[in-house]
């Protein structure tokens, strides 16, 4: 997890307090706040834990917040906790919890029921943490070539397998990353494959033209994978 701060975004502490130290997680409905603290204390110093409950019945909704003292601790928790927790940075407190719960359920927990929406990711700008969405409708208007689950990535610099895998693994569904080397040139070439064409579309949309490392622009195109691209 990389966290950047704009100079125009106010004091560093204000930004930490509002957006970078609190994470939102999915938990078993049997968890108590003490259970939640026990599971996440290994990643850093916890300021508080809270479980979201049904206002009428008082039963847990299976969702909770964990607030750390440092942004690095929250980032570590998101990176290293079990994927079943579906941990993400929480929205600022000035956004209603009901609205955030709805976004979380819609985009993180039930992707198979939302065929028109791809997963969302957070970026920090001068307004703070902003979710970025990419819908299939928008993606389709940009793509004029046959799509597939497989991508070709070309760079003027050679790739490091682990680093390229980590970059493309930011998009869910990565199946493999095969870095190939040309002994006659110093350029980089790799084949990336995802479990679905939707993930490949999103990866191409986000990473074609991306500078990695800075100053080195990636070229990402679709490769034939043997499937009917019309699907």
From TrEMBL:
Keyword set, alphabetical order: Repeat, RNA-binding
SMART domains: RRM (SM00360)
Source organism phylogeny: Eukaryota, Metazoa, Chordata, Craniata, Vertebrata
Superkingdom of this protein's organism: Eukaryota
Gene: Rbm45
Chain ranges of the RRM domain: 21-95
InterPro entries found in the cross-reference section: Nucleotide-bd_a/b_plait_sf, RBD_domain_sf, RBM45_RRM2, RBM45_RRM3, RRM_dom
Gene Ontology molecular-function annotations: RNA binding
Stated name of the protein: RBM45 protein
PANTHER family: RNA BINDING PROTEIN
Species this chain originates from: Urocynchramus pylzowi
């Amino acid at each position: 997890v990389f966290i950047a701060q704009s100079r125009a975004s106010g004091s560093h502490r204000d930004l930490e307090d509002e957006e970078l130290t609190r994470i939102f997680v999915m938990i078993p409905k049997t968890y108590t706040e003490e259970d939640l603290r026990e599971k996440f204390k290994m990643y850093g110093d916890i300021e508080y834990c809270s479980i979201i409950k049904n206002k009428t019945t008082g039963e847990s909704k299976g969702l909770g917040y964990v607030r750390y003292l440092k942004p690095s601790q929250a980032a570590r928790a998101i990176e290293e906790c079990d994927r079943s927790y579906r941990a993400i940075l929480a929205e600022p407190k000035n956004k209603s919890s009901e609205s955030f719960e709805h976004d979380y359920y819609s985009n993180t927990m039930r992707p198979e029921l939302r065929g028109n929406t791809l997963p969302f990711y957070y970026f920090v700008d001068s307004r703070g943490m902003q979710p970025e969405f990419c819908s299939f409708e928008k993606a389709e208007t940009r793509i004029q070539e046959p799509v597939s689950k497989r991508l070709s990535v070309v760079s003027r610099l050679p790739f490091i397998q682990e680093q390229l895998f980590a970059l493309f693994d930011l998009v869910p569904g990565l199946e493999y990353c095969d870095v190939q080397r040309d002994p006659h040139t110093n350029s980089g070439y790799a084949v990336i494959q995802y479990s679905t064409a939707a993930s490949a579309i999103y990866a191409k949309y986000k990473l074609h033209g991306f500078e990695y490392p800075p100053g080195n622009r990636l070229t990402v195109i679709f490769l034939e994978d043997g499937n009917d691209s019309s699907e």
